[in-house]
Amino acid sequence: MTMRLTTLATFALCSLGCGSTPAAPDAATVSADAALADDASSTTDAPTTTDAPSSAADASASADAPGSAGTSVAIRYGMGEGVLDRAWLGYHRTGSSDAAPDGLYFELSRGADGACPSETSPVPAQIVTIDGFAGAAPATRTEADGLAINFFDFEGTFFEEIRPMNPSAATITVTALDLEAGTASGEVTLTFGTEGDAAGSFVATHCDSLDTVD
Question: What is the pLDDT of residues 87-97, one digit of tens each?
Answer without folding.
Answer: 999 999 999 99
